[in-house]
Amino acid sequence: MVWLKDGSPCQTSIDAKRCKLKIEKSRRGDTGKYELILKNAKREVKIPIDTTVLDRPGKSEGPMKVSDVTKEIAVVSWKSPLDNGGSNIERYIVEKQDVERGTWVPASEVNGDNTLLRVTKLITRKEYLVRVRAVNKEVELLETSGTTLAKNPYDEPNAPGKPEISDWDNDRVDLEWQASDKDVGVPVEKYIIEHQEKGRDQWVQVSPYMSVDNNVRITDLPENGEVEFRVKADNKAGESESNSSTDRVKITEYQNGRTPTFVKKLTDTSALLNSEATFITEFDVNAVSEVK
């Protein structure tokens, strides 16, 4: 009598009527094809046995790849473990870690046939680690080799030039500014215009609130209000810092003043010789508006 494993003899204890094969502390390496051979003078009998030692799966094959990173999303991929632990991989559990916080939190799960995941809800400019657990009846970890910075593959534009007021009237202002000049890999898509009224702390978007060119005519402004303006550039990565604001302008119809006008005109009159003659009129000098 003899026991074979994958064609090689095993150490066994044998007596006249019993042959026993005992594996102490079985390991995954003990998985294989076993065969018991019984032989006498008449014939030989072989009894094959397939034996599987179940364990957690091996570590997913790395390195983990990180691609298509933006300020909120990163795509991670990996390869299936070479050893599934003796049973099918049921799913992969993916976790992420904000390096500053140092704690692992669930990102998502995918089924055992999938080895790619879009990790979402990242915080811009934060660095992350990602790890994946292969799951059958047990689990095994694979981690990214380094941190991943959650940012778009391009930067926000720099601030455009300081806006200048080129013209205005009692219900509109014309603005123009130098375009953003920093090459960040993607073009400026639009400029966002905001205004602030005298005596208020809040900047609000104007009407229209954006322009694709480096000039705009702004309407729906409060007549005789005193207002200043600022501009931000915007691309796929986000908004730039605000540029310096304009000087404050008073929204009035006559920006350059106008000819004085008489409210009450002079009229022809007559007077007696050697007596006093009086002429009375009312007028508006229409002073020039100011940009302060």
From TrEMBL:
Record keywords, A-Z: Repeat
Residues spanning the signal sequence: none
Gene3D superfamilies: Immunoglobulins
GO cellular component terms attached to this protein's record: M band
GO biological process: sarcomere organization
Pfam families xrefs: fn3
Oxidoreductase among keywords: no
Domain Fibronectin type-III residue range list: 60-155, 159-255
Protein name: Fibronectin type-III domain-containing protein
